[in-house]
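Page 37, top half.
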Amino acid sequence: MKNKLCEMFGIDVPIFAFSHCRDVVVEVSKAGGMGVLGMARMDPDRVEEELNWIDAHIEGRPYGIDVLMSGNVEDSGDLKYDPEKLLPQEHVRFVRDMLDKAGVPPLPEAEEQQIMRDMVKGMNFTPRESLEMVERAMSHPIKLIVNALGTPPAQLIERAHSKGIKIAALAGKARHAIKHKEAGCDFVIAVGTEAGGHTGDISSLVLWPNIVDAVDPMPVLGGGGVGRGRQFAAALALGCEGVWCGSIWLKTVQSEVPPEIKSKMFEAAADDAILTRSVTGKPCRTLNNTFSKAWNAEDAPAMLPAPLQNYLWWQEGRSRVERVRAKEFLTYPVGQIVGDMTEETSVKEVVYDFINELLDSKERLDGMLGE
């Protein structure tokens, strides 16, 4: 494709795949797109391990990393390993009582502390934690760093550029995109509210051309509700240079998603991907579940700010829920495209389906518009 981002990275098609799974990253890059590894659930040692594996399997194709580096989240240091000091007891009791009433067994007393420590080891949400992982990553041949929670720090942009690494950031409003451009980002990812994970409240159809116009001539990727070639075509028609997609890879055989959660996704409708602060403390679109529903009850305490709500879920909820695969509480960040995800497929099939449907869309438009 004759495309700014294809030229920037030497790729065949401007399909940028966000995934926490190294297998997805490698397969998308080998299929001609650009795999981007999400590192929010990793610690620095795990980052090193994952990137070593990618380097050994990606056959020299370009790839990138994605971090959560929010400018308004304070570092909490090692307090996340000590919920007695970190979390209000009212909230701890609320979650424990909820799980007890649902019959979700508590953690084995002898193993509780170690299970919780292992669970939160990879939960890195603050600037200090993210920067430590980025430092490790920059010793590998990464070509892109994406920040999912705000404008990247100036020192990171400068250092990345000095090593030939491109920088991008997600934006849910035009003013955010303008800040990214002014800070020196190489391109912007306009993410509509349909997206999974942390997102805003403006739909892709409105947001994409809004941000394209705001940062012109900077390239823009369209994200949020992208899972097939027709949506790819729509993004290009609205001025984007390509697409950013994450949820669609969750249905693949290469995905890291456990079978029990993947099964829930295949049963879900688009409106089962809800926008809630219950999981991380920031608006996050995730698969509906009993934990998120409970925070809407009149007797529920106020949700904690990020990253405390995130620690609460991981330490007091997820550690128990995932140990026994309690289906009603199982969740995963996923976008509204989940309604189209009905069966398992492969990464390569998803990429080829994107391209074939894009070409079909072009042929249809050519036929409608004439010479």
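Page 37, bottom half:
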Amino acid sequence: MQTLTQPDFNSQRFKANPYPFYARLREEAPVFRIKGPANEVGWLVTRYDDAAMVLKHASASKDRLGNMTPEQRAKVPWFVNLFEPLSQNMLSRDPPDHTRLRSLVHKAFTPKLIERLRTRVQVLSDGLLDAVQRKGSMELVEQYAFLLPVTIIAEMLGVPSGDYRKFQRWSNRLISNTTMRDVFLSIPSVVMFTRYLRKLIAMRRSSPGDDLLSALIQAEEAGEKLTPDELVSMAFLLLVAGHETTVNLISGGTLALLQHPEQLERLRKDPALIGPAVEELLRYASPVEVSTERFAKEDITVGGVTIPRGDLVFAVLASANRDERHFKDPNTLDLSREPNKHLSFGLGIHYCLGAPLARLEGQIAIQTLVNRFPNLRLSKPADSLKWRTGILMRGPKQLPVSLK
């Protein structure tokens, strides 16, 4: 048997099907040592129970520099500091800062308020599909899976529609970082994204609207709740997290259905199945492959392995979601799977704030697509598809489909 080596998250071959490798890790090395982007020590945690523990563990911190030893901090390259303006958000903070920042936006993402967006999401889905119906084909990622969630979150934040493609490019570049070379090459995207957000905030400050960004600006102006850098960073997080994961849910979920025509037909015949179907697609396709990193505040024992203070810790959601100890026939797509307590939205205090919105968008987008186009099929072989690279996300880069 081949020796286990660190996976290449920039490899098309690995991203196309990482599941056999994760299955080996769960059996042979469930807490697996890797080298991080800055040559720091990191650990992939692959079993469900261990990953759940990491996601909830009080000593698995989000504060990178604050939990490094002096020796580890001295090894951090100088240019990493350029990312600081975009990292002062609730996803990168521990309590009490995390609690304070999350409280400022959580009311905008309650299930009740998100439900009010149902009509807008449906109208937008119909409009995007109207635009491609006559042609009889589309590139599903660019023309549907991206445009739907990015339009919704941009409207919520008050971002001009002409700017969507700009921050898509910057966002894709930043979340694809795996090596230190990637991090270095993404510096222009950091600078441009930060500059763009500062201009957008200045525009909203002088001309506030009925949007989430204006509300955050008002909170910042009230003092103590939000600093100017936190405002920039929160806008960054909401824009990026508000569309990136849902792009993968819609595109990766559609691909999974096309590869399992019997399940696709079940969904067409029983529209009421869409709720559990999206939960199963979240589990099976795992739009977020690996959770954002944690840092050991102290030595932590996970799965019998001691992770030293300051090391990176990654919960591998795509692996946990297929753990045979937790799911029956985990490699089988079953749209009526019950129970289905997947980890795709995380756990604990960092549980995805936008989960209700992602579910709503995924349900409407996928149901509308499969109902409108009974002959929906791939336009090219599945094994020739290109995949997004990087450690965090997993989804097809492009998904050309025929509609007739």
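Margin note: The radius of gyration is 21 Å.
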